[in-house]
UniProtKB/TrEMBL annotation:
<feature type="compositionally biased region" description="Acidic residues">
    <location>
        <begin position="22"/>
        <end position="50"/>
    </location>
</feature>
<feature type="region of interest" description="Disordered">
    <location>
        <begin position="76"/>
        <end position="107"/>
    </location>
</feature>
<feature type="region of interest" description="Disordered">
    <location>
        <begin position="1"/>
        <end position="54"/>
    </location>
</feature>
<protein>
    <submittedName>
        <fullName>Uncharacterized protein</fullName>
    </submittedName>
</protein>
<feature type="compositionally biased region" description="Low complexity">
    <location>
        <begin position="1"/>
        <end position="21"/>
    </location>
</feature>
Length: 107
């Protein structure tokens, strides 16, 4: 019976060894898990990069819109100034004549 008992234990040990994963079998799983974790980290980095890029693009667009508006206002002011200068030039002889006439009246 001693032999049967040890044979049974040997069979059980052999069966357990067959079911247990070997170091070689475990390594690919760990590598796959590590690769998946690295991919997740890269995805997070990509997401953070995308968000940061979007914020920079939005800020750049606002700055460009602000610059365009400032240029538009500057052009409007220049056009108004030119129009006012032209009006003054048109009326300068009339104004000068009116001043001269008024000066004569006051003398």
């Amino acid at each position: 019976m001693g032999e049967a008992g040890s044979s049974g234990r040997a069979d059980a040990l052999a069966a357990a060894m067959m079911e247990a994963p070997t170091v070689e079998e475990e390594a690919p799983m760990e590598e796959e898990e590590e690769a998946a974790e690295e991919t997740e980290v890269e995805d997070d980095d990509d997401d953070e990069f995308d968000v940061e890029k979007k914020l920079q693009d939005d800020a750049r667009a606002r700055e460009e819109a602000h610059i365009r508006r400032a240029i538009e206002l500057s052009l409007q002011a220049a056009q108004q100034g030119t129009a006012e200068d032209a009006r003054r030039e048109r009326h300068r002889p009339t104004t000068a004549a009116a001043r001269g006439a008024r000066a004569e009246e006051l003398r």
